[in-house]
Amino acid sequence: MRNHQLRRRTGSVRTRWLSVTGFGVVVLAVGSLVLWHGQVGELFGLAADKEPVVSSVNAPAISEPPPTTAVPTPTKTPTRKPTRKPTKEPTKQPTKTSDKPSYDEESIDGLSPTLKSRLKKAMAAAKADGVTLRITSGRRSAAKQQRLLNEAIKKYGSYTAATRWVLPPKYSAHVHGKAVDIGPAAAMQWLNRNGYRYGICRRYDNEPWHFEALTTPGKKCPPREPYSRPVPD
Ligand SMILES: [Zn+2]
C-alpha cells in the first residue's frame, strides 16, 4: 500500500509538475506572443504604448502654438509702435516746419504788405541813384529771434542790456514782418535820408541798419528812439 500510494503520490506529483510546467510554458508562450505583438506593433505604430508617445509628441506640438501665438502678440505690439512713431514724427515735423519761415530771412517776401510795397519803391529809387539796398535780415521766426536774444544775453551780460539790441519774439517787429535790416553802410545812409518819401524810417539811434514803416509816405519820420525796449509793438 505504501509503495503503491507512494507511486500514486509520485505519479500525482509528476502530473502536477507537468501541468504546472505546461501552464508555465503556455504563460511564457502567451507572454512572448504579447511581447512580440508589442514589438511588431511598435514597428507599425499600432501599439497602444505608442499612443502616449504620440500624444506626448502631440502635447508639445500643441503646447508650442501658445508660444507661437504669444510671439505674434509682441510682434504686433512693435508693429503698432513704429506705426505710431511715424504718425507722431510727421505731426512734429509740420510743427517744426511751421515754426520755420517758408521764406528766406534775407528775402522781401516775409515782410508785411505795407513794408514790402514801400521797400520795393525805395529799392527802385535807390537803384536809380546807383545804390543797392540789400536786406540783411527781414522777417524772422520766433525761434530764431529767441536764439538771437539768448546770444545777446550772453554777450551783454543781462536781459535788460540784451533787449536794447534784440527784443524778445513777442515784441520784435522782425518776427511780425514789420522791420527790415539794410546793408551795406551806403544803403543805410541812402534810406536814412530818403526813406520818409516811401514811409520808411530808421527807428533806433543804436541801430543805423534797422528800418520800419513808421510814417505816411512823404511825411517826416517820428523822433528816433535811443534803443529798443521790450514793449508791445
Ligand atoms: Zn532790425
Characterise this structure.
The protein has a four-stranded antiparallel beta sheet. A hairpin with a 7-residue loop joins strand 3 (201-202) and strand 4. The chain contains eight helices and four strands, in the order H-H-H-H-H-E-H-H-E-H-E-E. The longest helix has 43 residues, at 2-44. The chain folds into three domains: 2-63; 69-99; 113-212, Muramoyl-pentapeptide Carboxypeptidase, domain 2, CATH 3.30.1380.10. The protein has helices at residues 2-44, 50-63, 65-70, 72-99, 113-128, 142-156, 159-162, 185-194; strands at 134-137, 179-183, 201-202, 210-212. It is α+β, with helices and mostly antiparallel strands. The chain binds zinc ion. Zinc ion binds next to strand 2.
Characteristic key phrases:
Muramoyl-pentapeptide Carboxypeptidase, domain 2; binds zinc ion; 233 residues; globular; 4-stranded antiparallel sheet; 3 domains; alpha+beta; single chain
Cα distance, first to last residue? 150 Å
CATH class call of the largest domain: Alpha Beta
Instruction: Give the helix level as a range of percent.
Output: 55-70%
How is the CATH topology of the largest domain named? Muramoyl-pentapeptide Carboxypeptidase, domain 2
As laid out across the biggest beta sheet, the strand order is: 1-2-4-3
Would you kindly provide a brief summary of this structure?
The chain is α+β, with helices and mostly antiparallel strands and 233 residues long. The chain has helices at residues 2-44, 50-63, 65-70, 72-99, 113-128, 142-156, 159-162, 185-194; strands at 134-137, 179-183, 201-202, 210-212. It has three domains: 2-63; 69-99; 113-212, Muramoyl-pentapeptide Carboxypeptidase, domain 2 (2-Layer Sandwich), CATH 3.30.1380.
